[in-house]
Amino acid sequence: MSATPDAWPDLAGRIIDDETGRRHVLPVRVYFEDTDAGGIAYHASYIRWCERGRTDFLRLLGTDSRRLIDGSASHEPAAFVVRRMSCDFLRPARMDDVLIVETRVKELGGASVTLLQMVLNEARRVFEAEVTVVLVAVSGKPVRLSTAVRSAFAQADQGKVLGIGGTKA
Amino acid sequence: MSATPDAWPDLAGRIIDDETGRRHVLPVRVYFEDTDAGGIAYHASYIRWCERGRTDFLRLLGTDSRRLIDGSASHEPAAFVVRRMSCDFLRPARMDDVLIVETRVKELGGASVTLLQMVLNEARRVFEAEVTVVLVAVSGKPVRLSTAVRSAFAQADQGKVLGIGGTKA
Amino acid sequence: MSATPDAWPDLAGRIIDDETGRRHVLPVRVYFEDTDAGGIAYHASYIRWCERGRTDFLRLLGTDSRRLIDGSASHEPAAFVVRRMSCDFLRPARMDDVLIVETRVKELGGASVTLLQMVLNEARRVFEAEVTVVLVAVSGKPVRLSTAVRSAFAQADQGKVLGIGGTKA
Amino acid sequence: MSATPDAWPDLAGRIIDDETGRRHVLPVRVYFEDTDAGGIAYHASYIRWCERGRTDFLRLLGTDSRRLIDGSASHEPAAFVVRRMSCDFLRPARMDDVLIVETRVKELGGASVTLLQMVLNEARRVFEAEVTVVLVAVSGKPVRLSTAVRSAFAQADQGKVLGIGGTKA
Lengths: 169, 169, 169, 169
Fold this sequence. Notes:
4 copies of one chain form a homotetramer. By secondary structure, the first copy, chain A, is of the alpha+beta class. The first copy, chain A, has helices spanning 43-60, 65-70, 147-157, and strands at 14-18, 21-29, 78-89, 98-108, 112-121, 124-137.
């Protein structure tokens, strides 16, 4: 069984562009590892799922995390780290549920991206978050987004991003 | 080697009451499980550590989570679930670091508690969050905090809580 | 974006039946959450991935875990718990790798199933394990596999299972 | 609240040497993050707890993991990775339980250590494992244990280790 993208075409989710805007969607299944003794999905599981969504969004835009870490996608080895996150847990999710993680670009800064993420369970919103990630070098210093990364995200944000090149971290 | 509280007196942290206010402190070590390929603590690890802090604060106040789940600490089986969380990731933490999770009561609602939590690394703040948890029954319905739980938290909040018995969820 | 099986046909992997035998295959991506400061996949991540494989194998055989827990798939609420596991970690896996988890039935006992699981990275074996799981009721007592579960697994094991109904736990 | 070892003297557990042999003991609390929807501790949690035990054993022997990774504790940057593990899950553990992780050296190889680990719940064994870890350089090559690491472990194994300097990986 091959592990090529062809064999599992949707493994990194899909980028959708319709009347409700451009966004990345990724299905995640709730497994035992994601639940807790309360019988529902553990709250930190949503944080992990959102990170999968952001990582795969970036992947479909053409840049995977390892290329960033290796430095082959920018001037020096770097990684996106979470700087700020605000989350609302709206409804519980349960074992075996199939959830959809939706990720949209809200705003691009010089070295940062702010994303809106939500988790849906059969079209009902169960979680939503605004997350700001910063591209940071091994040294700990913020790294300016490369033109490639920037235009990929900007494309995903189709014109709504007026703040490109702004001064936000 | 006994596992009694006497054998490991600080396992659930300590409640401290000094000039900077009443709060719960819990040390956590950064292990491999908490780190990621970026070489630093994974961001969702802070969410897990804060949950440990809240759970042990409640424990030292006299109520452990299993008694809530069993229903022996309230009228029906219940658990605190996270409703809202806003987090700032200020500095990275690394493998082997000893961090301190500080938890303070900010506000008591009818069925909820809002806490201020921060994670310190040698007195430097590396993470801070405001977290609202709600006591929820198995049915999914919010459960009014029992007098015991309420007075324990209120005591921890020593007089700053004017909103006790308020209408917030 | 719908979360129906049709929308994401391979989300639970596939059951394959060819010259190398009947088995379940599930792709898993290595995300930041799965890695550690050593720069590779954390060893306990393989344990979680194998559990996903077993859960989805069972799902494609017609029984999801929630139905077991609810009691709707057997006489009483029950869940498969791991009793014994022996694991070889053969090669490291890294951030962004796409791995394949393969699961085969080795042997059926009265209340247990022994599975052979391996994790492949581009056809190279990186991990293998033999795992025995037991169906256990809420009371903690082993529960005899229902005819439906048994025949589903036996089918997956196509005739090699002579020990059906045996005395193994 | 200081994070110095003095402030939390038992944070890395203790090394005990009595009639049942020399071993490291570490208390771990079962938190929500460690449980699953079956209401008990998730099986991979034991794997994480054992890793904490090994890491803290090494720490009390004088070598922390970051010094290994940095290369300051050996000739080149290295880390202990798990090569083989066999585990028996004997009894369930539950939310709020205080468990003790016991770790003993079974055998020292040239680049490897085999450990016996068990998890106790009020003196009853709930989990046991034999775990072989190998010291591996960034290059992926096994690294011969330094004299310091070797003698620390050998001391922990007090004379039972005849195979020091042997040919095992």
